[in-house]
Design brief:
Helix content is 28%, strand content 25%. By secondary structure, the protein is α/β, with parallel strands linked by helices. The protein is globular.
Length: 508
C-alpha cells in the first residue's frame, strides 16, 4: 500500500519511538476494512515496537493508537493518508512518549481541563488545513485522559457526512454537536474549551522595543529583522501563518520552485523561534493607541506597551454581500477548493471570481464536480492566459461573464444561485450544491482607530519606510496600500517596516 519512498520516510520516524504501541483495530470484510488492515499490518511489520489487535469499536473500519498498556484517546476512522499521514506519524511518536511541541502554558491549560470531552473531526485527505486541527485535538487527548478524539475520513464515511450535513472540512463535533469548522490552532481550540489565557500570564511583560501584530509572512519577516538588531521584540498572533495557510501550491517564491502554504509557514515559524522573539500565540488585538509609548490592547483586556508597533494583520477573503452568503457559510458556501472540493464530487457547483484564484479553483474542482459554472462580474476573465487556456479545454466548465450574483438560496444547505446578466438585465438561476467565493482579499483593519490613516479600500497608508501617519506605528503586508499582494512582497515590506522602526528608535 505504501510506496518505497513513503516507507523509507516512515522507517526513520519509527526509529524514534520511545515506547511500545498497539493498534486496536475494528475491521470487517468490506474493501475499506481490508485496506485499513493492510495498512496497519504493513506499518507494524516495520517496527518491533508496534503490534496489532482486534477490537469492536463504534466505527468499522477504524483503529485506536494506544500505548502498550492503557488508552491514548486517539482514533482514526479511515486511512490517515494524504495530508493526514503526518497526523498519523505524530500520533505514533506522541503516544509512544515523545512530548508534543507546544508552549508550556498551553500544555498546562490542556492538563487543567476537568471535564469529559469527546471530539470528532471530519476531514478530506486533500485538505491542507485539516491536519492542524487533527494534530491539535490528538495532542489534547494525549495530554489529558479526559479528552478523546476521532478523525473521520469523509470519503470513507460519506453517509455520515451527508447525514450530519458536513459541507466543509475540517468540521469538529463535540459530544455529537457541531463545535467548530475551518482551520484552528491548538491555542484557539483550547481557548474555545477552557477560556482565554489568564491575564496573569502577561504580568511579567516589560516594554517592548518592537511589537509585531500578526503572524503572516509580513509579521514574521518584521519580527526576524527586528530581533536581529538585538532589540526587545514581541509578536502577537491570532493564527500563525495568516492567509498563506489557505494556499496549497506556491511556485513564485524566488529560490523555491515549489512549496505549500502550511509547509512554508511552519518553516517560517521555526525561523522566528531561532531568535529572541516573545511569541504570544492565540491572542487577538482589539485596539492600539499612542501615548508616550504605543499601547496594544488584547481581547482579554491585557495592555502591552511598546516603543514601536508594526501592524501586519493581513487580509481575508472578500465577501460578495448578497442574501444567503452568511446563512450558508460552511453549508455549501466555501473558499478552499482543496479542502472542501471532495465534498462536492459528482455535484454541480459555482465559482464566483474570474481572477487567478477563481480560475485555479475551477480547474481543480472540474476534476471532481459534475459541472462547474464560473461567474465573473466583468466582461472578461482576469486570470493569467495560461489558466484561461487550461479552463477552456475542460468540457464540464461553463464561463459566464457580466454576471452579477443576486442571491444564494436553499433549505438546510445551498441549492441555487441567482444572477443577473449585466448586458441584458435578464435574471437566471443555477441549480448548484456549492458556491466557492474567490473574489480577492480585504484587509483586516476594521478594528483600527480612526487616528490611523486608511485609504477607501480600508488599507493602511504607509510611506517608503513602512511608517503610518502615527509616529512609532508602522505597517506591512496585505493590510497596507501595497500595490501588489504577494508573499514575497509581504516579506519584503515586513523587513522594510522593521528597519524603519529601528531607524525611528535610534533617532527618537
Amino acid at each position: 500500500m505504501l510506496d518505497n519512498e513513503t516507507k523509507a520516510q516512515l522507517a526513520q520516524y519509527l526509529e524514534l519511538l520511545e515506547g511500545d504501541i498497539q493498534f486496536l483495530a475494528s475491521l470487517g470484510t468490506d474493501e475499506n476494512s481490508k485496506k485499513t488492515g493492510e495498512f496497519l499490518n504493513e506499518v507494524a511489520a516495520m517496527s518491533d515496537k508496534i503490534t496489532v489487535a482486534v477490537a469492536d469499536l463504534p466505527r468499522t473500519p477504524s483503529f485506536e493508537v494506544n500505548p502498550a498498556t492503557g488508552k491514548s484517546g486517539i482514533t482514526f476512522a479511515g486511512l490517515p493518508l494524504g495530508h493526514e499521514f503526518t497526523s498519523f506519524i505524530l500520533a505514533l511518536l506522541q503516544v509512544a512518549g515523545r512530548p508534543p511541541k507546544i508552549e508550556p502554558e498551553v500544555a498546562a491549560q490542556i492538563k487543567a481541563i476537568n471535564q469529559e470531552l469527546h471530539f470528532e473531526t471530519y476531514v478530506s485527505l486533500t485538505c491542507h488545513n485539516c491536519p492542524d486541527v487533527v494534530q491539535a485535538l490528538n495532542i489534547m487527548a494525549v495530554l489529558n485522559p479526559k479528552i478523546s478524539h476521532t478523525m473521520i475520513e469523509g470519503g470513507m464515511y460519506q453517509a455520515e457526512v451527508e447525514e450530519k450535513k458536513v459541507m466543509a472540512v475540517p468540521t469538529v463535533f463535540l459530544g455529537g454537536e457541531e463545535f467548530a469548522s475551518g482551520r484552528m490552532t491548538i491555542e484557539q481550540l483550547v481557548e474555545k474549551v477552557a477560556g482565554p489565557l489568564d491575564a496573569s500570564a502577561f504580568a511579567d511583560k516589560d516594554v517592548f522595543d518592537v511589537l509585531v501584530v500578526g503572524g503572516g509572512p509580513a509579521g514574521a519577516s518584521s519580527a526576524i529583522y527586528a530581533a536581529r538588531k538585538g532589540i526587545k521584540t514581541g509578536m502577537v498572533v491570532d493564527t500563525f501563518g495568516g492567509q498563506v495557510m489557505e494556499t496549497l501550491g506556491i511556485e513564485n517564491l524566488i529560490g523555491t520552485p515549489y512549496t505549500e502554504g502550511p509547509k512554508l509557514m511552519a518553516q517560517v515559524e521555526e525561523h522566528v523561534k531561532q531568535y529572541d522573539v516573545d511569541l504570544m500565540k492565540g491572542q487577538r488585538v482589539q485596539d492600539i493607541r499612542k501615548t508616550d509609548l504605543v499601547e496594544v490592547e488584547l481581547a482579554n483586556g491585557v495592555v502591552l506597551q511598546t516603543r514601536t508597533a508594526i501592524l501586519a494583520t493581513g487580509a481575508r477573503w472578500r465577501d460578495i454581500n448578497v442574501p444567503g452568503e452568511k446563512e450558508f457559510k460552511n453549508k455549501g458556501i466555501a473558499y478552499c477548493p482543496h479542502c472542501d472540493g471532495p465534498l462536492f464530487a459528482g455535484k454541480e457547483i459555482a465559482v464566483i471570481g474570474g481572477g487567478n484564484s477563481g480560475i485555479e479553483a475551477a480547474i481543480d474542482l472540474a476534476n471532481l464536480a459534475k459541472h462547474v459554472y464560473v461567474l465573473e462580474f466583468l466582461p472578461e476573465l482576469k486570470a493569467d492566459q495560461v489558466l484561461q487556456t487550461k479552463l477552456a479545454s475542460l468540457s464540464n466548465v461553463t464561463v459566464i461573464t457580466n454576471a452579477q450574483t443576486n442571491e444564494i438560496s436553499g433549505g438546510d444547505q445551498v441549492e441555487a444561485l441567482n444572477y443577473t446578466d449585466r448586458t441584458t438585465q435578464e435574471s437566471h438561476t443555477l441549480a448548484v450544491s456549492g458556491v466557492f467565493i474567490l473574489i480577492g482579499l480585504m484587509p483586516n483593519t476594521e478594528w483600527l482607530p480612526e487616528t490611523i490613516e486608511k485609504n477607501p479600500r480600508g488599507e493602511i497608508v504607509v510611506d517608503g519606510h513602512g511608517a503610518t501617519n502615527v509616529p512609532g506605528i508602522f505597517a506591512a503586508g496585505d493590510c497596507t496600500n501595497s500595490a501588489y499582494k504577494q508573499i514575497i512582497i509581504s516579506m519584503g515590506s515586513g523587513a522594510t517596516a522593521a528597519l524603519g522602526a529601528f531607524d525611528y528608535l535610534i533617532r527618537s
